[in-house]
Amino acid sequence: MQTAQTHTTMIRAEAQRLGFDQVGMAKAEFMEEEARHLEQWLQQGMHGQMHYMANHFDKRIDPTQLVPGAKSVISLVYNYYNPAKQEDPTAPKISQYAYGKDYHFVVKDKLKALLHFIQQEIGEVQGRCFVDSAPVLERDWAKRAGLGWIGRNTLLINPKAGSYFFLAELILDLELEYDAPMRDYCGTCRRCIDACPTEAISPEGYLVDGSKCISYLTIELREAIPDEFKGKMDNWMFGCDICQDVCPWNRFSEPHHEPAFAPHPDLLSMRKADWEEITQEVFNQVFQHSAVKRTKWDGLQRNIKFLQEE
């Protein structure tokens, strides 16, 4: 009879074969401490207009609400680090996670393949795949699964890989061997706090006011960007990598090996003037399968115009 240890070993091997860089297992249980933190964050209005963050609170903190009878949460890491930069240093900047094809589709396909493997090899296993698309506290589960610690910038940091990676989860009604959480290695470092131009990270870290984050302002916010942020956007038109770029742990980041994440041939060579004059047609070509489509052409134009006014 196959054991939890055997199942865990099989799943790890297949996940790595599919291209996941790290795999960790955690027991599916109610997240009491995380529930308190989330409630406080929401009460302080730090989610801005991300109203969906307040929805399905019970599901966010209890995996059995998402998968009845859930016993395990498998957390997985998928690298997206690309050291290539935009050629024109004056061009408005785009976060490197959005260089290539939308990660939701790329990672979700691999996750579905992993679930199919589990069901084929182990048998009657019920489970669901999650890639930043459902009420799952992915960083907290990754922390519980021993994949890293949550840093002062509130991102998951892995001591061997930094933080330039996507997180994904499989919630299963299958018993597995569970990993131990990792301790925090941020130490006295404050680089992310000091570097954030909008002061979105609290003075002591470990708390981000989402409504001040450049990623929120350029992607999530549907209204005009408030004037108080003029001169503070550091030329970012979609997302922001500042708190990752300055993190010492990202010196261990290695280039990804995912062809789907390669940028469109024109993306990195576009000049400042090209972005300022971008048409709907060019937008559709360059970002055909990109996460940038989330902000739409008019949203990107809004961001670029705001940067011009700074």
What is the structure about, briefly put?
By secondary structure, the protein is an alpha+beta fold.
Average per-residue pLDDT, rounded, comes to 93
Q: Show unreliable segments.
A: none
Helix segment tally: 11
Largest sheet: 4 strands, antiparallel
Secondary-structure element pattern, one letter each: HEHHEEHEHEEEHHEHHHH
Strand pairing plus helix content: what structural class? Answer: alpha+beta
Any idea what the radius of gyration is? 20 Å
Percent helix among the residues? 25-40%
Question: Order of strands across the biggest sheet?
Answer: 1-2-7-4
Amino- and carboxy-terminal Cα gap? 66 Å
The number of E-state strands comes to 8
Strand content: 5-15%
Q: What is the overall silhouette?
A: globular
Structural write-up:
With 310 residues, the chain is α+β, with helices and mostly antiparallel strands. The protein has a domain at 4-83 and 101-172. It is built from eleven helices and eight strands. It has helices spanning 4-17, 32-43, 57-61, 103-122, 138-144, 191-195, 214-220, 242-245, 272-276, 280-286, 296-309; strands spanning 22-27, 72-79, 93-94, 127-130, 149-150, 156-157, 165-172, 236-238. The chain has a four-stranded antiparallel beta sheet with strand order 1-2-7-4, with helices on both faces. The chain has a two-stranded parallel sheet with strand order 3-8. The longest helix has 20 residues, at 103-122. It starts with a helix and ends with a helix. GO terms for molecular function: 4 iron, 4 sulfur cluster binding; cobalamin binding; epoxyqueuosine reductase activity; metal ion binding.
